[in-house]
Amino acid sequence: MSGGGGGGSAPPPQDNSIQLEMMREAAAQREQDRQDALKAQARTDFQNNLSTAVTGAHNTGRDYFASRGLSPDTYSSLIDSIVNDTRVKVPDLDANPAAYFNSDAFATGLDNAQNVKRANYTGQVNSRFAPGFDRTLIPDNAGDSIVNSILGNQTQQAQQQLDFNRKRGLLNDAGYATAQNELGAQGNAARSTLSNIESSIIGKDRQDLNNIRGDAGTAASQFQFGMPEFSVDPYYKQAQDKATSDIGNLEGSIRSALGSTNLFDVPTLLQKAGTAQGPINLTTNTPADTSLPFTPKKTNTNRGLGSTGTF
User: Which among 45, 71, 147, 216 is most buried, taking Cβ atoms within 10 Å?
Assistant: First the structure.
């Protein structure tokens, strides 16, 4: 029996998984390094392009402002502000940052800054010309002393005529009391008439003040760069001066509006007094009063007062 031919089993295959994994990791790292290098270069290129764009943007801004008739030197800080505002709007790593710094950017920036100015100026107008400013400058009682003076003078004149008729004997106690009551009622109506005239004139004067306020508001809302800086002070001074003038002229305005109107109807006073007192006896002993421009005739006739009186 012969022995075996010596054909043993084949050796197991060599395990290269570790080496392969290391190769894969090395390749991935190389790719990562390449990507990082590309990103770093892209960032460098972006920063360089953005810096160049910003530098050129200042020139673009100066040209734009000059085209609008605005001195670039005077508005250099606004140009810088628009450039800085635009810079933060450029997307990161954008391939063409210069495209964002065009004339439209400066047009928008100029309009926005102008609107901020207008809002600020309008706020100043609203603050200085606060609601009720017209009543502060021309108070409700600005003409009260004038009304009282006119009413007092006309009341005195009517009272003098009643007293004159009483001295003549044309009014007895009952008639005089009735006339006094009616005089008070007419006085209330007279005051109302004068107060309405006063209120009407003051209302018109206040409207003039509000027109000045409207002019200030219009100027504030229509402000444009290149104009002198807006100030509300001249407008308020104009309103103050107008109010002072109106108050100074208020008496003349009220008297002119009243004209020759007599606020008291003395004939009606005497007629109502005559009705209340009935017929009275006028004797030759009735004293004549020449203090008023009417001297009564002496008579013994018994008659009522009727509508007799001085006017």
Answer: 216
Lookup: tokens for 212: 């000045």
Taking Cα atoms as reference points, which of 162, 196, 146, 163 lies closest to residue 265?
162
Closest by Cα among 100, 101, 22, 16 to 57: 101
pLDDT digits (tens, 9 = 90+) for 258-303: 999 999 999 999 999 989 888 765 443 444 444 444 433 333 333 3
Give residue-wise pLDDT tens across range 8-56: 577 777 888 888 888 888 899 888 888 889 888 888 999 999 999 999 9
Question: DSSP assignment of the chain, as one string?
Answer: --------PPPPPP--HHHHHHHHHHHHHHHHHHHHHHHHHHHHHHHHHHHHHHHHHHHHHHHHHHHTT--TTTTHHHHHHHHHHHHTTSPTT-S-GGGGSSHHHHHHHHHHHHHHHHHHHHHHHHHHT-TTHHHHHS-TTTTHHHHHHHHHHHHHHHHHHHHHHHHTTS--HHHHHHHHHHHHHHHHHHHHHHHHHHHHHHHHHHHHHHHHHHHHHHHHHT--BTBPPP-SHHHHHHHHHHHHHHHHTHHHHHHHHHTT--S--HHHHHHHHHHHH--EE--TTSPP-TTSS--PPP---EE--TT----
Q: Whole-angstrom Cα distance, residue 161 to residue 289?
A: 11
Look at the pTM and tell me if it is higher than 0.85.
no
Compute the distance between CA of residue 137 and CA of residue 147 in angstroms, rounded to an integer. Answer: 19
- Comparing CA positions, the residue from 259, 130, 255 lying closest to residue 198 is 255
User: What are φ and ψ of residue 237, in 5° steps?
Assistant: -65, -40
